[in-house]
Write a structure and sequence with these properties.
989 residues; mainly beta; 5-stranded antiparallel β-sheet
Length: 989
């Protein structure tokens, strides 16, 4: 490789220095003939991992890398193997290996070694290096190789194209000792003409992060590695003329052949796809022999409490070699995807049979191999090579550390063995392969021996849960956020759940609700959350494992627990009177029933009633602290604001046991809150209501009552079917009249399904009166755009002229909102104006027309709203905001004369709209930048012709002549519009 540090050291400032640099470059090329013909790179990728040092020497910003390159064994003349003895690396933080290169090595820190042959035409090369980054953040480490090997069919002139790969990773305190995905299968693979080609990278993430795969075009850089070394900032692009291998211009004879998939093969054009979850690449099927290159991205996602977060990606550029062979590939058979409980041993038998050998000969022996991140400790051993059948056995003893939400991937490959020359030759018949991926999901073992018994009654009815020590406890010293957790669930009634080794946790719709969690190292839990007498509860637990790998256990067996007796429960929250100050609600409840064995409650005992505002109050106020008569089950709550507020009540039954107060709370219940919405246009009123109660209001219809505001009794006008949270009724009675007020209330009919005597619980809402009076509809406003092209063509300096005035034209239509509004008897419209879209807006004028012209303006930039007013003086809501913006005018001259005569001395726009900032660049006729300025304090450029760099390193005036400019302008309009203006200017002194 060429050491680009020597090139960066010189800075030619004249023809002589340029010639000296060229001679130096030629000398370097002549002294390093391998670099000059290094057109040999087939494939590669880069892996990264955070410092693994244990103890005080650990540095989270120190990253270790391993780069793998696959190279041709033969030079262009087909004789000696080409070499990539050392490489230059770009670290993504603005630094690179200037002045040094990375030598090939067999292991981290090991001595230099030569390339290792892996096939008759391909070598593998490993490079280990490290870098300490200045801060946390995301970085891309990359490599530029020169160049690719020749005659790649889907890349034009591949021998002239550099080879680029990069790996992006994130350094952060929340990611720990993160490692990028590891690709265990080689990146060079072979196939046959009109046979399905398969490749799987056998990727895994050692931290348990999720991986996603997608195809990507091969990349290169326009600048060489040496040229890029001047800035250490590679600029990768898609390789010029790249096509995917199945494109007609890459493999014109390609077509699909029968294949059982996935995806299943058929007829038609060839396909080249990659499974986003497994990474499996399928090319069905290449039609033309030759070499092909393609890249793909392995994206790394970290599971967090907030969802998935992408933390990195590895780009692998791989090579596919297709041969015109009549050898048929083998067929492999693997086990079905499976789930296994941690601690069990997974055993899988793999077999393969070969197709016809070369030239129609007998089937060949087959070599079986396995690739996976779990090998080792897992093992795969081949017992028979065939023909007719090759066999192998996979075995893996799992443990608790293997539990993960994503399956482990084991790639099995079957490769036949056609005869090879000795030594191997490039024209030998290539072996063909079949491969399949086996997905193994490791789940946590179910918790054992869950028991539920009645717990201590220090805070009402409780249940004590216990279970055996869990098999997968957190290691001692594990941080809280990294511990295995045991989740506790409860539901009313007992339920059977089918057993399934792949079913972890609780199935959706099972009715269980989580009531708590503890560390998996614990063995008990006390449920003291709203248990009631007379009910049966079912409990289940299961374990969840920490991120990033995650995973769950199979759920425990059910533990059921019943409580004798019956709790005191609320039955009524009935609004008796509607008022802002004298409102009244009657609250009723049932007497509790003691367990049969107890025979009754022992005094002292009492009820305690509390009230909160709203449907889900944050706090409650005690309104009846001690009702000691068990038969006293009614409380009238007075002096309330039932007109504007909804109330929720909580009842508690208090008893004494050995001097300890026991509290049994009942479920809370709210009043019924009604809302009436008039729709005058349709002459109807929509009544809706909400509640949150422990009884069932859906068994019977809710009754709707109405009366006129002038007096009289309420009469029932209808019924409505309701939900568990409320209902709606539309009163479309033809007797409803405009300009009248109507009052409503509803009465719900509830029940407790399991209590025969609690079957008709009647509760009224507050009364709500609404006028059936229409209001004007909200107008819909538009403004006519300005003809900016005409304005620019006719504009004259100075702009705007001293007496120049502008006008804005507005139009609007009659809207249809809100529901029930009216467009009848509209008398006039009010026009409001503001300087910004957010306002404030002030009244500008009024008109009876549907249009308005705002004249005599010093500038166009304004925002407007319109409001309709009817004959009764009722006003609509204001319309949408419509704004008129300035035209983006920025007209530059084509000549200026910076000669110091105070006339036309600077280059600046002769006409411009208000401007916030300008980035201005000037280039000479050879494309060399001679001036650049970014300014927001003086955004009108005002270039005096200076800025050119001199031989001494200072700046001076540019010479007379024609120059080309690029002005990136940000205008001071509502949208902060950005536009780029290009042109030329002549300097004459």
């Amino acid at each position: 490789m060429i050491n680009f540090s020597s090139l960066c050291a010189s800075k030619p400032t004249g023809r002589g220095r340029w010639l000296a640099g060229l001679l130096t470059l030629l000398a370097l090329l002549l002294s390093q003939p391998e670099a000059a013909r290094a057109t040999h790179i087939r494939a590669g990728d880069i892996q990264a991992r955070v410092d693994t040092t244990v103890g005080p020497g650990f540095n989270p910003r120190r990253i270790f890398f391993k780069m793998t390159l696959y190279t041709d064994r033969f030079s262009m003349n087909g004789n000696n193997p080409v070499r990539e003895d050392s490489v230059a690396i770009f670290f993504g933080d603005g630094s690179c290996t200037k002045g040094r290169t990375i030598d090939r090595a067999a292991r981290p820190g090991g001595p230099y070694v030569g390339p290792t042959q892996i096939t008759n035409d391909t070598d593998i090369n490993y490079y280990y290096f490290e870098h300490t980054y200045p801060s946390s953040g995301q970085f891309t480490v990359s490599y530029i190789g020169e160049n690719r090997n020749a005659n790649v069919r889907n890349i034009n002139s591949s021998i002239d194209k550099s080879f680029y790969i990069g790996t992006t990773f994130t350094i952060g305190p929340d990611l720990g000792r993160n490692r990028t995905p590891i690709l265990t299968a080689p990146a060079v693979d072979k196939g046959g003409v009109l046979q399905v080609f398969l490749h799987n990278p056998a990727a895994f993430d050692p931290d348990g992060d999720s991986l996603a795969f997608k195809l990507k075009e091969s990349q290169f850089t326009l600048l060489s590695a040496e040229e890029t070394g001047r800035t250490c900032k590679p600029a990768p692009e898609i390789v010029t003329g790249f096509r995917y291998p199945n494109a007609p211009t890459s493999s014109p004879s390609g077509r699909q052949v029968p294949y059982n998939g996935p995806p299943a093969g058929g007829t038609g054009a060839a396909i080249f796809v990659q499974d986003p979850r497994t990474g499996q690449i399928v090319w069905n099927a290449p039609g033309d022999a030759g070499t092909y290159n393609v890249a793909f991205v392995v994206e790394e996602y970290r599971r967090t409490a907030q969802g998935f977060r992408k933390i990195g990606e590895v780009i692998r550029d791989m090579q596919i070699i297709i041969s015109p062979t009549n050898n048929l590939r083998p067929t492999i058979r693997i086990p079905n995807d499976t789930c296994v409980i941690a601690g069990a041993t997974v055993v899988g038998n793999v077999s393969a049979t070969d197709g016809t050998g070369p030239g129609g000969q007998a089937p060949l022996p087959v070599v079986l191999s396995a690739f996976s991140g779990i090998i080792p400790p897992a093992t795969f051993r081949q017992s028979e090579t065939g023909p007719p059948t090759a066999r192998g056995r996979f075995e893996w003893t799992t443990d608790c550390s293997n539990v993960a939400s994503e399956p482990y991937l084991v790639l099995f490959k079957a490769q036949d063995t056609p005869p090879q020359s000795s030594p191997p030759q490039s024209n030998d018949v290539p072996p063909l392969i079949d491969e399949r991926a086996w997905r193994i999901t490791v789940v946590g073992p179910p918790p054992q021996n869950l028991q539920a018994t009645a717990g201590p009654r220090t805070s009402g009815i409780t249940a004590q849960l216990t279970w055996d020590a869990y098999a997968c406890q957190s290691p001692a010293g594990t941080a809280a956020g990294r511990q295995v957790q045991m989740l506790i669930f409860r539901k009313e009634g007992c339920t059977r759940i089918p057993s399934d080794p792949c079913l972890t946790g609780l199935p959706e719709g099972s009715g269980y609700q989580q009531i708590g969690s503890v560390s998996a190292n614990q063995r008990s839990f006390l449920d003291d959350r709203g248990l009631e007498r007379g009910k049966t509860y079912s409990y289940r637990i299961y374990a969840v494992f920490p991120l990033p790998a995650g995973g769950e256990s199979i759920v425990s067996q059910e533990a059921c627990l019943s409580f004798d007796g019956r709790a005191a429960v609320l039955t009524n929250v009935d609004v008796d009177q509607t008022s802002t100050t004298a409102g009244q609600i009657t609250v009723r409840w049932t007497k509790p029933v003691a367990p049969r064995a107890q025979g009754g409650f022992t005094p002292p005992f009492s009820y305690r009633l509390s009230r909160g505002e709203g449907q889900t109050p944050a706090t409650f106020t005690v309104i009846a602290p001690a009702i000691t008569n068990l038969a006293d089950t009614v409380f009238v709550d007075r002096n309330l604001d039932t007109q504007t507020k909804q109330y929720t009540y909580r009842l508690e039954f208090l008893t004494q046991t050995a001097g300890q107060t026991n509290t049994e709370p009942s479920p809370t219940a709210s009043s019924v809150r009604l809302t009436a919405t008039p729709q005058p246009l349709n002459r109807r009123i929509v009544v809706s209501w909400t509640y949150q109660v422990p009884w069932d209001n859906t068994a019977g219809p809710t009754r709707v009552f109405r009366r006129n505001s002038t007096g009289g009794a309420f009469v029932q006008v209808g019924t409505a079917v309701v939900t568990a949270a409320g209902g709606t009724y539309t009163d479309a009675d033809p007797a409803l009249q405009l300009d009248q007020t109507y009052c409503y209330y509803v009465q719900t009919v509830g029940r407790y399904p399991d209590v025969p005597y609690l079957q008709s619980l009647l509760n009224k809402s507050q009364e709500q009166c609404v006028p059936l009076i229409s209001e004007p509809c909200t107008p819909v406003l538009t403004v006519l755009p300005i003809n900016c092209d005409s304005l620019a063509q006719n504009a004259r300096a100075p702009y705007p002229a001293p007496n120049q005035r502008f006008e804005n034209r507005l139009r609007w239509t009659l809207g249809t909102t809100p529901a029930g509004c009216s467009n009848e008897n509209i008398r006039y419209y009010r026009i409001f104006v503001g300087d910004t879209e957010a306002g404030p807006f002030t009244l500008r004028d009024s008109t009876s027309q549907l249009s308005f012209i705002d004249r005599n303006l010093l500038q166009n930039k304004r925002c407007y709203q319109v409001q309709a007013v009817d004959a009764a003086g009722r006003r609509s809501a204001r319309s949408n905001v419509a704004c008129v913006d300035e035209c983006q005018l920025f007209i530059l001259p084509n000549i200026f004369t910076p000669n110091g005569d105070q006339f036309n001395n600077t280059f600046r726009p002769r006409i411009n709209s208000p401007v916030r900032q300008v980035r201005f660049q000037v280039f000479n006729r050879w494309g060399v930048k001679v001036y650049e300025n970014v300014s927001s304090t003086d955004p009108l450029i005002n270039w005096d012709g200076g800025g050119a760099r001199t031989e001494s390193g200072g700046t001076g005036k540019v010479s007379d002549g024609i120059y080309y400019y690029l002005a990136e302008v940000e205008f001071a309009d509502f949208k902060n519009t950005k536009r780029t203006f290009k042109g030329w200017v002549e300097i004459v002194r």
